[in-house]
């Protein structure tokens, strides 16, 4: 357990400066309007506090007094329950299950391609761009179904998807005209002041904010 007093007395998030899963958690915190201490982390050289707290030395890692949580999905759901307003999950079990399944597919199918583009070889990056584009286009009916992703209000699923959409230009993923509604979906979220608060300086440089 952390010995640093600041870790015991403040909500603390260990986060990389440009990381799609860390951005997901920062967006949840921003949507909730929660104050916290951000500890920027170089994943290749994690700080001693993080090494002591998390056996995987991974980010995002959240410290809430004596509680230490890691994995973006676990942290996001905890924050939604810990800070219930505004709620970021629907009330009924069926809708919640659908959103959880969508988020699981994002984690397993979309995020690895983002990471391959950012950190892989040229061949891995090229394959990642192709596959991520295919996944986005296959999901067009889901973006058409509601104002937000499978839900009339912003949810944890949007917090997971929006950081991916934000990075598309920087990732070199260009969508065709028929996929404009995906960009429109992203812009609805990007215009929210909470979204701006979720961005690190490095992430702000990845694209221009919509007017």
Automatic annotation (TrEMBL):
InterPro entries: Glutathione-S-Trfase_C-like, Glutathione-S-Trfase_C_sf, Glutathione_S-Trfase, Glutathione_S-Trfase_N, GST_C, GST_Omega/HSP26, SspA_C, SspA_N. Belongs to the GST superfamily. HSP26 family. Residues 92-211 form the GST C-terminal domain. It comes from Arenimonas caeni. Residues 9-87 form the GST N-terminal domain. Gene3D superfamilies: 1.20.1050.10, Glutaredoxin. CDD domains: GST_C_SspA, GST_N_SspA. This is Stringent starvation protein A. GO terms for cellular component: cytoplasm. The lineage of its organism: Bacteria, Pseudomonadati, Pseudomonadota, Gammaproteobacteria, Lysobacterales.
């Amino acid at each position: 357990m952390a010995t640093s007093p600041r870790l015991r007395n403040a909500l603390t998030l260990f986060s990389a400066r440009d990381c799609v899963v860390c951005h997901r958690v920062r967006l949840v915190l921003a949507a909730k309007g929660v104050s916290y201490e951000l500890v920027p982390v170089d994943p290749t050289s994690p700080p001693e506090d993080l090494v002591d707290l998390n056996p995987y030395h991974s980010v995002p890692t959240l410290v809430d007094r004596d509680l230490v949580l890691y994995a973006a999905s676990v942290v996001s759901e905890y924050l939604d329950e810990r800070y219930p307003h505004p709620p970021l999950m629907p009330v009924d079990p069926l809708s919640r299950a659908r959103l959880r399944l969508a988020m699981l597919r994002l984690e397993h199918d979309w995020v690895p391609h983002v990471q391959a583009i950012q950190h892989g070889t040229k061949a891995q990056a090229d394959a990642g761009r192709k596959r991520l584009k295919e996944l986005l286009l296959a999901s067009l009916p889901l973006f058409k179904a509601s104002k937000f992703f499978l839900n009339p209000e912003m949810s944890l699923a949007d917090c997971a998807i929006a950081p991916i959409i934000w990075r598309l230009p920087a990732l070199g993923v260009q969508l065709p005209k028929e996929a404009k509604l995906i960009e429109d979906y992203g812009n609805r979220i990007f215009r929210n002041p909470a979204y701006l608060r979720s961005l690190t300086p490095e992430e702000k440089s990845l694209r221009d904010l919509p007017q």
